[in-house]
Specification:
about 300 residues; single chain; three-stranded mixed β-sheet; 10 helices; 3 strands; mainly alpha; Rhopdopsin 7-helix transmembrane proteins
């Protein structure tokens, strides 16, 4: 990062520009944050305690819940504290760390969802080989690769953003440190950094999405060959929750990141960020538990232990 940077702190605008809405928005996001924590911690605890859920699908789900829990914790608490304390300041290095952690978790989730699609593809397309191929060792390797890939991308993305010169404006029109609003504050020409970031981010998102699509093409081609309607529904139900999570993640993530900083709209940026950084991690536990009988049983055992 350049030594010419003179900005030592940034100002985060928060959830809303209107002071009269600050209390309402703070209360709403505080509720959502605790809801996300409760949901994801419950999934982790239920999967850990119930031996029947010690399978690859739930192993990935437990890691997804942990990611989502970290995901919301990186951004919401700082925004809530700033709002409650009336201070909108975040130091330069706090901003660097926040961006790095957020991008790392976002990219790791992208790769983890791809691994989960591969798991569902093997379970439905190659059921006889599933238990042999999808071993505990392979599951662990896939999760490690997802995390390491996220770290590597976050290092690139953070350097690409903060290698720019920041010498004047320091008001970030967002509730956390995200790359697009930060780049707009740069005193230097950010065009090259924008193009490189857009290209690399696009390749990662589209590459992971393409692998997920290939998995679902194989899944659907297998499901349509099942003769009974009950059999088709049973096969589809095992991946419907994951498909919901994939749609939520990629639709909101693509809107947020597959555009240059020069075309960034502050209002749109904050609205989209609420979906992919707050609501999506909060809704994932609901999506996975709503139609999953095994998870429902495990959660009942967790909260209503038998006498």
């Amino acid at each position: 990062m350049t030594n010419e940077t003179t900005v030592i702190e940034f100002i985060l605008k928060g959830f809303s520009d209107m002071p009269e809405l600050r209390l309402i928005s703070t209360t709403f996001f505080l509720f959502i944050y605790f809801f996300a924590l409760l949901g994801n911690i419950s999934v982790i605890a239920a999967v850990t305690r119930d031996s029947r859920l010690h399978t690859p699908m739930y192993f990935f789900l437990k890691n997804l819940s942990f990611l989502d829990m970290c995901y919301t914790t990186v951004t919401i608490p700082k925004a809530l504290i700033n709002s409650l304390m009336g201070s909108e300041v975040i130091s330069f290095w706090e901003c660097v760390v926040q961006l790095f952690l957020f991008v790392m978790l976002c990219a790791s989730e992208c790769f983890l969802l791809t691994s989960m699609a591969y798991d569902r593809c093997l379970a439905i397309h190659k059921p006889l080989l599933y238990s042999v191929i999808m071993s505990r060792k392979l599951c662990t390797k896939l999760v490690i690769v997802a995390w390491l890939s996220g770290v590597l991308y976050a290092i690139f993305h953070t350097i690409n953003t903060f290698s720019l010169l920041f010498c004047g404006p320091n008001v970030i029109d967002h509730f956390f440190c995200d790359s697009s609003p930060i780049m707009r504050l740069s005193c230097s020409n950010s065009h090259t950094n924008e193009k490189v970031g857009f290209a690399v981010g696009g390749c990662i998102i589209l590459g992971a999405f393409a692998l997920t699509i290939i998995s679902y093409v194989l899944i659907i081609s297998t499901i349509v060959q099942i003769h009974s309607a009950g059999g088709r529904w049973k096969a589809f139900s095992t991946c419907s929750s994951h498909l919901t999570a994939v749609i939520l993640f990629y639709v909101t993530g693509s809107i947020a990141y597959l555009r240059s900083a020069s075309h960034y709209s502050p209002l749109q940026g904050r609205l989209v960020s609420v979906f992919y950084s707050i609501l999506t991690p909060s809704l994932n536990p609901v999506a996975y538990c709503l139609r999953n009988t095994d998870m429902q049983v495990a959660l009942r055992k967790l909260f209503v232990p038998s006498k």
